[in-house]
Each structure stands twice: as C-alpha cells, then as structure tokens.
Hints:
By secondary structure, this protein is of the alpha+beta class.
Amino acid sequence: MELERFGEQHLGAVAELIADPEVLHFTRIPEPAPPGFERTWLDAYEAHRRDGTREAFAIVEDGRFLGLALAPHIDREAGEVELGYIVARPARGRGVATKALRELTRWAFDELGAQRIELMIESANAPSVRVAEHCGYVYEGERRSTYLKQGRRVDTLVYSKLPSDP
C-alpha cells in the first residue's frame, strides 16, 4: 500500500467513493454530493496544495484505488495539521486505514515538521476511533455540536499526536 498525490487519474474512483452512504454520513462531504463534486474537490485540493494549506493522497495498492488520505487543514506557521482518511467499501476491514494513517502521520511530522496533528472523528464512527487508537493517537475529548450537516448537528471526538508521543 502506498500514498500518491490525489489527481485526475483518481476522479472516477473518488466519484464511486463519495456515492457510498457511509462515506457521506461520516465525512463533511455534502449529502447528496453535488454532481461533479469529485472534480470540485480535486480543484480545491490542488489550489490549496499550491499555497501549502491542504494536501490529499490516494491510497493505492497494486494500481487499485483503496481510498483517500487527507490533510484538510495545514497551518505551517503553528505546526498544526488536521488529518483524515476515507477507505472504499471493498478495502474496509483489512487494515488499510491504519496503514494509511501511519504513513500520513509520518509524512506530516517528517515533511511538514508538524508539532501537533489532530483527527476530528464523528462520535458515532467507531471504526475510525479504533484506527486512531491503533496509530497511537491520544483522545482529548468531545466537541459537542461541532458542525452542521444537512440539518443535523454532529458531535466530534478529538484525537491528537505530538512528535514526542510513542
């Protein structure tokens, strides 16, 4: 498994990914995703890639798309990074998210010089919580009613990792 920059070649697979009701439920992607959202998403990540405030990678194995590994917020001055991951349904339950988060974490510390990495996980997303804990992230607490999505407020669990953490 490896991470490669999210690009044009991934658009079809990302369109399938964001059609998955579980993906829509547990992410900040609008429900339903508007037509062409995958293109809009890629364009936004490419623009922010240029200014250094976001990054996105495709998770691939033997040429197969398995999901996305994301840095939706990068504050280079503060050394703070938010990370996230989305795994395609056929790849779930195989440790893909754990491997991807470990690699993404290494990238944030080594390439960005991050001093603090955060994961923001919807409180009902138990598989994502397990991934965070398997990767050594520390539970900090719950942010209640963090954001509004399709008329519902969502509680978010905050996990973090510092360079000094094991």
